[in-house]
Known about the structure:
Elements: H1 9-23, H2 30-37, H3 41-48, H4 51-74, H5 80-97, H6 105-114, H7 118-144, H8 157-171, H9 177-191
Helix pairs in contact: 1-2, 1-4, 4-7, 5-7, 5-9, 6-7, 7-8, 8-9
Amino acid sequence: MARPKEFDEAAVLDEAMDTFWEHGFDRTAVQDLCAAMRLNPGSLYGTFGDKRALFLAALDRYVDTVSRQAIERIGSGHSGLSGIRSYFDHLIAAMLDGKRRWGCLITNSVAELALHDPDVAARVKLHLARIESAFASALARAQVSGELVQGVGPQGAAYLVCLVQGLNILAKTKPERRVLEGVVDVALKALASPGSRTRR
């Protein structure tokens, strides 16, 4: 009869996710993961499989949690543009004082692995599609309420996804708040009708 696990699987997976997020796949050794997760190698391999399997599980965890939080924030505003602004304000704060100073695990994984690992590429595609869909819904709301310049609508979601990915790369250079906010201000001003309030 198998012994019950003496650890919270979700909690230790979060530790693995953060370790991969900060250091990347190649620069994270199994012993680093064991230390962060407070597991011996036997428990790690027995629960999650090898390092690559654990990385894929960590990516799934990231997509499930980060995508969900982003979608909720984008859709939470009293208007389409306010939801988008709320998302970017939160993103900038996390880049300055939170885990986003490491960039984005998805963006980092694109550069490191996605081009030659179809399993990673599939997870990247899913995450980006979810974020793009959330932006498209917010832009559709903004279009109906007259917040957007003529000719801009849900199709602008891809532009916002590109903006997010660019900010994720920029975050790793430790930029000042004014730089990040300036980039977002210019980008959102390009979408908004003259009477809309897009600034924080």
